[in-house]
Amino acid sequence: MESLKVISVNISKKKGTAKIPCQQIELYESGIINDAHAGDWNRQVSMLSIESIHRFEEKTGRKVQPGEFAENITTQGFNILKTQPGDRFFNDQIELEVTQIGKKCHGNSCIIFQEIGDCVMPKEGIFCKVIKPGKIKPGDTLYHNPIASSNSAFYLDEHIFKGKVIILSDRAFHGKYTDKSGPEIIKMLGDFFYKQNWKFTLHSQILPDNAECLKNIITQSFNEKTDLLITTGGTGIGPHDTTVDVVAPFLQKQIPGIMEIIRIKYGTVNPAALLSRSVAGIYDKTLVFTLPGSPKAVREYLNEIFKILPHCFEMLYGIDKHKH
């Protein structure tokens, strides 16, 4: 198991200021006692490696002390950028769960950015929440656990993200038509997951417009712990459009906003888009989206869905980024 050494522990009583090294810090359920960034949110504790600081010093010629980048814990000996949200750092005293890699740069409130015009924290810092309260001091060792918990399994390097695409089309199923929407979804999903640096597998299956067949495949997909299930076709108001009627009763929670905004956005240009009954939601930890059957509509829907997809999984796996 890989480990890192704690070089410095640092706190500040005001946000937007450098943190001051201290003899030890004490973690509680909301972060670090007497630190400005404590609270009921996802960035309770920040970490930055001394290796990142040294690279910044070499690049800029500016000497940087631990805590000047506003990190709570300055580390050494382990590339913390190898972590993913859901990984944990622990010893016999404390436990932290990684919630975020990097952050938006707030240049106006960063002393070093104002001075140099650059800052390493937004690119190479990581953020955590407290799982087990306790004390940390310089010289302590923290161990990296990439197999954090079942609730965070989606984010682990070892996890293989499972995506499944179901194409509903009588003509494609009987070989009278070459489906184009399914391959388009597979391509777009592959590009998206690759950019996220997530391991993944993608499978597709063509079904006839048959409610019972769809119900059986959906049930099978849930039993296989599929992470993302997407259907294409059967979302309209025609006599064979039964996809939404089959899928909706499975959903434990619906996500109506994403489909509403897509219908409004594209329906203003093409009123026919307003006839789509597409739905989105979750079953256990499977995200489900029903898309229309045309390649153009698939592209339009996915381009909007990709904007919320990472946050959907963060919420499913208990990483709350709502509070700032």
Architecture overview:
Helices cover 29% and strands 26% of the residues. Strands 1-6-5-9-8-7-11 form a seven-stranded mixed beta barrel. Helix 8 packs antiparallel against helix 9. It has two domains: 3-148, Beta Barrel (M1 Pyruvate Kinase, Domain 3), CATH 2.40.33; 161-316, Molybdenum Cofactor Biosythetic Enzyme, Chain A (3-Layer(aba) Sandwich). The protein has nine helices and 17 strands. With 324 residues, the chain is an alpha+beta fold.
Secondary-structure blueprint:
Elements: E1 3-11, E2 20-22, E3 25-28, E4 31-32, E5 45-49, H1 50-60, E6 73-76, E7 88-90, E8 95-101, H2 111-116, H3 121-124, E9 126-132, E10 134-136, E11 141-145, E12 161-168, H4 170-173, H5 181-196, E13 200-207, H6 211-223, E14 228-232, H7 243-247, E15 253-254, H8 256-267, E16 280-283, E17 286-291, H9 295-316
Helix pairs in contact: 5-9, 8-9
